[in-house]
Amino acid sequence: MVPAPRSQALFHGIASVMHDGDDPVLTLVSPQQPYVCIGMHQDVVAEVDEAYCRDAGLPVLRRQVGGGAVYLDRNQLFFHFIYPVNKAPRRVTDLYAHFVAPVLATYQALGIDARLRPINDIHVNDRKIGGTGAAQIGDATIFVGSFMLDFDVETMARCLKVPSEKFRDKLRGTLQDYITTMRRELGSIPPRETLVARFLRDVGEHLRVEPRHDELRDDEIRAVDEWERRLQEPDWLYQPNRRRFAEGVKITGGVHLSEGMHKARGGLVRVRLLSQNQRIADLDISGDFTCIPTSGVEALAHALRGLDLASADMTPRIAQHMTMLGLDLPGVDAADIASAIRGACAQED
Predict the structure, then answer these.
(1) In terms of DSSP bridges, do strands 255-264 and 267-276 run parallel, antiparallel, or are they unpaired?
(2) Does 249-346 carry CATH code 3.90.1330.10?
């Protein structure tokens, strides 16, 4: 149990000073206080009800891993696999299959028939019991997720920004119907000692490693402290360089600001588009997807400047840039990006 910012700073800091020859690291942690965490590529203003979180005393943090906004508390036990890049699978989809194996084995050993549901969710009888995420920080590959001991559906529904209270009621019911927990499946929460011991056994068996307890090195402590500070800075949370365009605003003849979105298999893709004479003058891409490298989303948005919005070959042009940039976007392809951009174009009419 550690303070909320520390629960995120641990894997960020350890990863940032990891080198090729280092042993892999697994951290197991729960936050002492509840908080809200958004994905690396999300826009906090668009995704989180900040007024509610402020009034409820819930910190909002941004992690350097993709995925969506989520409410986190002590009833979730988070695991972070931190591996030197050269010791982990290269592609994100391979990472999921590799590192989720001991997680599924632990659930199953405890009597919960958990399965991986592509792209990266863990399900029990069509209900989600956890999500996973991956990223690269420095010379380290990260795979993160949690064991869902219990879950506060009511607070989760309140944390998210929604268009209306009627929609929030629908969201609350949907979360209740389609999310499950260890308490719901088993009738009670297993002792943490039992859960951890079983998980370490399954990690050793499935990943062919020998887990042993260890302490942070001095350089890791310094890095974790620095990340704990950084994660609480407004500039990290709000990403001030991210452009926020008002929807459907006509600036002058031929110049528009607009927003579009598209639900891909790998998550929601949201774009904010500045167009001039039917070409992309500027573009911001956000969403709850995963992208490695993390900087690839901004690089793609920059590369698409000047693209003819009326062109019939928009999708292959986007695909070409994604290939040149070496982007790994599981469940999100060029057609998904193009659909989001076309959605923004439709707002200009």
Answers:
(1) antiparallel
(2) no
